[in-house]
Write a structure and sequence with these properties.
By secondary structure, the chain is mainly alpha-helical. Helix content is 81%, strand content 0%.
Amino acid sequence: MEFLNALADPAIPFLRYAFAAGILASLSFGIIGTYVVARRITYIAGAIAHCVLGGIGAGLYCEHKLGITWFGPLSGAIVAALLAAIIIGLVSLHANQREDTAIGALWAIGMAIGLLFIAKTPGYIEPMSYLFGNILLISEFDLWMVLVLDVLVVGIATLFYHKFLAVCFDEEFARLRGVRTDLYYLLLLCLTALTVVLLVRVVGIVMVIALLTLPAAVASNFAKGLWQMMVLATLFCIAFIGSGLAISYNNDLPSGPTIIVIAGLIYLAASALQHFRKSISG
């Protein structure tokens, strides 16, 4: 009740912005997280997430050092995420290098570049809010950006639903049917990149993979089809974020870690329940 009363309090709009951002972003998390889990590209999504810090650092440097006010941390994050997605996708599809080595290298380089830019940015920049997230810092402008990105991600994911379905489950058959699987794989990585940018504002770079994959992983225990998994993953994500915000607000805890702990506990409980059901039926 204390949290609900705070949501209705006009003196603290940041809490309403945080709750609204969580609900809006959950649409992308549920849909793209389902594709990520089904295609088993969690490690790639993690590399993209950590490359985002390079873009955030570059955006802060341009904004505070060079005076380029239109290119801030969010713009830098979007550019870095999309570049990382394209590079990793091309490496995965065409390069002769070991895929895991290339992804690990980009993961580390992105983080290092971001920290270097932050170190050279005038004034004190707190990197912890980017590494571990702070959804309570979301402004009205950020909320509109979340809405725009959300509409873009959900629209494209829905428009190419069947193509992405083929890429996730039967890529070879789709290729034989004339589907340009490489193109749709790169598009899926770019949508994952945009979703990661949304997610960084909620739980930060370090824990981004948990909230991108755990709702979908929990939903997979109850869904019979991909679209059902997407719906359930979205609802679970809303529940995780809402309950995490409420518990963190009432107990003066950091919101990002609280959300992840709740998601992790529900995932473990759902996995244990699924294992129990299989053992009983078997």
